[in-house]
Batch of 3 targets.
Target 1
Amino acid sequence: MSDIKKNIEDIISKLPDDVLLVAVTKHRSIEEIKKVLEEGISDLGENRVQEFREKQEVLPKDIRWHIIGHLQKNKVKYVIGKVFLIHSVDSVELARTIDKESKKKGLMTDILIQLNVSGEESKFGLDPNQLDQFLEDISDLGNIRIKGLMTIAPNTKNIEDLKDIFTTTRAIYDKIKENVNGVTNIEMTFLSMGMTNDFDVAVEAGSNMVRIGSGLFE
Ligand SMILES: *Cc1c(COP(=O)(O)O)cnc(C)c1O
């Protein structure tokens, strides 16, 4: 059995205080997740709604759940009111569905816009060139709040390529943040980027939320 406690200590020691660790618990057992909670981590990320629901049912209620994977519109109703943040909003239709389901429940749902900065076809995410139009299209939605951006870097060890993706995303984040005056449903707070193999590069580029899975459990 791997030493989850030690893994967490190692990773935390590499993170500046203002960077939030989201422990990615997909495919992990309840027993393993409990070890993470024991270390004082209370932000957990899941990428599948079904798995999230099963775990949410049996784990403590004060966990802050993050949906980090591609979200289908017909699954939205199962997460509204139960999650802290949805990281993976990449279409106007999905944003509208989240807004509609939130409105039904009288809630405000916090979301991040997932950007596909690398342009890889295999990746979900909004093309950064479509971002201005996206923000305009959703500006009238009263039951979602855009809290920032999320991106997934390509699976590469090339530090320069990673840096490029992360600094580009950071620049887009800063630009929106500077220009939000008057837009009520945008409140740039979180820049979610960095996973086990690239979080150090992401943090250096200005990430304030890392999503780490294998590095905690293996
Ligand atoms: C699985 C996953 C992670 C964690 O990846 P690791 O390499 O295991 O740290 C982060 N973000 C998303 C969107 C994921 O699906």
Target 2
Amino acid sequence: MPDLNDVFTPALAELQARQLLRHRRQATLGDHGQFTVDGAPRLAFCSNDYLGLAQHPALVAAAREAAERYGVGSTASPLVSGHSPAHELLERELAEFVGMPRALYFHSGFATNVGCVAALVGRGDAVFSDALNHACLIDGARLSRADIHVYPHNDMAALERELRACTAPRKLVISDAVFSMDGDLAPLPELLALCERHDAWLMVDDAHGFGVLGEGGRGYLSHWGVKPSTIASRVIYMATLGKAAGVSGAFVAGSVPAIEWLMQRARSYMFATGAPALIAEALRASLRVIEAEGWRREHLKVLHARLREGLQGLPWEAPASDTAIQPLILGDNATALKVMADLEARGIWVPAIRPPTVPVGTSRLRICLSADHRLEDVDRLCGALREIAQS
Ligand SMILES: *Cc1c(COP(=O)(O)O)cnc(C)c1O
């Protein structure tokens, strides 16, 4: 058998040849969405810190005080000694915030989906998964050993056909609430109606809607005017807390027995060290800021309208987006990388997203707005894109 070097040196060279090799930058967040990237200042449109909370003084102070009180490590799984009073309060406040009977906090969103999907269904059951779902929902479905039915993106007619034909004892529909590479929404009323008609459960991943959508930033369910407690017997709501909430980790919320089951059986919860209490305290502060500083969501809407206006007339498609995520579809990898480099030469950082993250032929710039941006920052981005398009 060839050794590790013999296998992976050519494998990496092949990624390089296909323009799929990724590089990390050393990035430090500053003011107004500015980062220092490998030592140079960059106006960045790449962070998921949609509300600009990652450096909010109230969150930083909460984390600092919690470090003094609890130290920095959580010591064990939450089922052993890794669940502090701070975690307990956070879970209660999360449940109350999204209007569900109970919530369970996980150290990461990826771990949440992988563990929860696999704990909800098993061999002989069926999972119905939107074609554009996030990798961790897909991996959770695979890990569950249930049969996986992938339906075309947001195609409710196709989903209904699959559901109608299915005789599995448990059916679980899984969907991103806001699709992470396009910024569009899954149609909750239709999803709920289908799940009721065909007796399926629904799990929605609101990584990009929590904090941004809905009344007071309560997220996707609130956006659609659905009262969460009325659907808790069928729906598991999941959201991450490292994006708009500005910290890290994630949670699931739903009925008391369902969430208790996930605590008992999600392996990524049981067999992982809990997040530090200082993270839980920073998140509690974040919930208060999300609610109190509604101007951040308002400002994001103003920035979004300005961006949509500024992207008009460019030779690239900018599909309508409902959120702070705005894709600009460039096509092949080389074009996406070229435009990214041309922006970078002008001091602007927008990541090029390539397969396998997005389908082949839809390589794109994923422009992310943050409440930290100013109108002039958006104007600078649009001006640079116009220059690049004409050059
Ligand atoms: C980012 C993301 C996750 C993963 O959450 P982490 O906390 O970053 O692990 C899950 N689902 C979606 C849709 C995401 O965008």
Target 3
Amino acid sequence: MPAVTVREALIARDRIKHLVRETRMELSPSLSDFMKVPVYLKLECHQATGSFKLRGATNAIAGLTSQQRALGVVTASTGNHGRALSYAAAAAGVRATVCLSRLVPSNKVAAIRALGAAVQVVGNSQDDAQFEAARLAQEEGLTFIPPFDHQDVIAGQATLGLEIAEQLPSVSQVLIPLSGGGLFSGVSLALKALLPQVKTHGVSMRLGAAMAQSLEAGKPVNVEEVATLADSLGGGIGLRNQYTFELTRRFIDRVILLNEDSIADAMLHAYLEERLVIEGAGAVGIAALLTRQVEAQGPIVIVVSGGNVDMAQHQRIILEAVRDRRPARA
Ligand SMILES: *Cc1c(COP(=O)(O)O)cnc(C)c1O
């Protein structure tokens, strides 16, 4: 029996519904035309705080004891988890501290500060930020809520799988952005419990894909973190990973890896064809289709995991992708 099951997902759904939106699932005419099977976008870019991370963070806050609530929580985050945890903590009247590395874009840092959390910018990698968060947990008695390797966080992300199963019971394949694997584990375990035939594929950038390399090695391995357009997919899975490595290994059908140009092209596609402004991590499922790495077996659901891109950066990416005149994907 896995560490988290659909039962925990159902409990989580009830615990987070006051704060978390049920997001829309929309047919993409242009991607359906491209694939010749129906393709849907699950729009977590329209979730409150701009990403699915609010699901897991809200469920983790709901799971605190009253003593833990009183002392507060701490985390390390590439941005979206920190932002979501700050939002969920503020809504529950819990103090939050967020440790971030210098790679995190300034728009995300500002958004977290604006939610009232204490922000610590430390080091050059997600691992450095995590080390500082662990120190604060130890020394100040704060409860550490990691971005993915935590049962309540995984159960919260699993509520997204419940929604997909309800919104599109005929779904055949789901493309899920993959970093630490909390999103992938949660969505897959819920979906496959309800719809056993569904295939779930994990999608990452080729640069620094920690889970992909760990799956290949058969155990969690360290991977050097490098800058990528999919900044929310950066960081390791933890050499002492407790839950997400095993869950991902159990549920994953395929790993799909992408180069940076294809991520930019997918952001351009989202902008021109779907009228969506999304971050690189949120675009990888679209990129997997556009690079023809997915079988034409539908319906296909793409989890558009987040929209928190710096607007100036987005504009640069779009202009460059247009200028380079990579083939139009309409
Ligand atoms: C965190 C994040 C992911 C990856 O989630 P994991 O649980 O770490 O695999 C994907 N997309 C966005 C927008 C994220 O913020």
